[in-house]
Amino acid sequence: MDHAADAHRTDLMTITRFVLNEQSKYPESRGDFTILLNHIVLGCKFVCSSVNKAGLAKLIGLTGEINIQGEEQKKLDVLSNEVFIKALVSSGRTCILVSEEDEDAIIVEPSKRGRCFHLFSALFLMNNCFHYELGLIQCRYCVVFDPLDGSSNIDCGVSIGTIFGIYMVKDDHEPTLADVLQPGKQMVAAGYCMYGSSCTLVLSTGKGVNGFTLDPSLGEFILTHPDIRIPKKGKIYSVNEGNAKNWDGPTAKYVENCKFPKDGSPSKSLRYIGSMVADVHRTLLYGGTFMYPADKKSPSGKLRVLYEVFPMSFLMENAGGQAFTGKQRALDLVPTKIHDRSPIFLGSYDDIEEIKALYAAEGKKE
Ligand code: AHM
Ligand code: MG
């Protein structure tokens, strides 16, 4: 490779270039989404830099406060939450935010909501004549996010990440919880940023999934994983087996099939990091399943619908995989509270089909 020439490359596909290219396909687009995403990217870079120097800066450790999930908060969780709230509010494109770390939704104050207009054009038939109308619709965004997921892994240097999902509000009403208590299929974009051996941002705006790696020397996310497609069937399953004694029948049967396949195929490998972003990232790239099922102790599972289950399910489906709750397609769920939880099985298309079949068979027995 010619490193001298490489050092002067300015034609790299940065995330901003990529999103601008995508948005330019919509003539009515005014750049609001690009601005919002740039602020999310800024938050990711900030958190990445804090995670990298956490040990040095003595950020590792507990603040001593208990968060709304009843867990002790770590300093980095608190910092990341502040970073993303500030970044999102200052984008001037948001109206309501939901963070894992805050009990209540954050309604952005009117002066910071900004006003993003959306041009529309319509051709309609009236009195046997065609009419053309050009107008302006306001649109603003709701962002749901987990600022630093996998916090139990912070102190030992295992990959952790930020997860986000974005809804669009098309009119000028006062923001309410109803704007975010929407099924995941209504999201316009979702993604995660993984702070690991490299910093990787994976994004979908509803048409495929793309991965960008932070080049620390440029401070830019560069497209490194274009059009990620999850393998149709995988060789890995990922679950916290320590909960096995409390699993339901279909989960236990699926894991049994992974270890002792009856069709002569090789046993699957178990990989479980305990950090959703890292486990889902591996599942997207290598295929297989990631599960956080219901169990007798936690009938709704552990993971939160709005900012964990939905964004990851959105990415999985856009990469050609599936996401299932044990009862239904995950993206069809309608949350009733902002911190609702749901069981989740996501991954390769064929593997999730197998899990769906086990639940369907269980349903027939009942
Ligand atoms: P957190 O939001 O408190 O960090 O919890 C979510 C994490 C996920 O990253 C991971 O998939 C899961 O909890 C692991 O849970 P467990 O330790 O029960 O296996
Ligand atoms: Mg979390």
UniProtKB/TrEMBL annotation:
Chemical reaction(s) catalysed: beta-D-fructose 1,6-bisphosphate + H2O = beta-D-fructose 6-phosphate + phosphate
Subcellular localization: Cytoplasm
PROSITE patterns on file: FBPASE
Domain (Fructose-1-6-bisphosphatase class 1 C-terminal): residue spans on this chain: 230-359
Cofactor requirement: Mg(2+)
GO function terms (MF aspect): fructose 1,6-bisphosphate 1-phosphatase activity; metal ion binding
Pfam family for this entry, one: FBPase_C
CC per GO annotation: cytosol
SUPFAM superfamilies referenced in this protein's UniProt entry, alphabetically: Carbohydrate phosphatase
Record-linked InterPro entries: FBPase_C_dom (IPR044015), FBPase_class-1 (IPR000146), FBPase_N (IPR033391), FBPtase (IPR028343), Fructose_bisphosphatase_AS (IPR020548)
Family matches, as PANTHER family: FRUCTOSE-1,6-BISPHOSPHATASE, CYTOSOLIC, FRUCTOSE-1,6-BISPHOSPHATASE-RELATED
Protein name, UniProt field: Fructose-1,6-bisphosphatase, cytosolic
Organism field: Gossypium raimondii
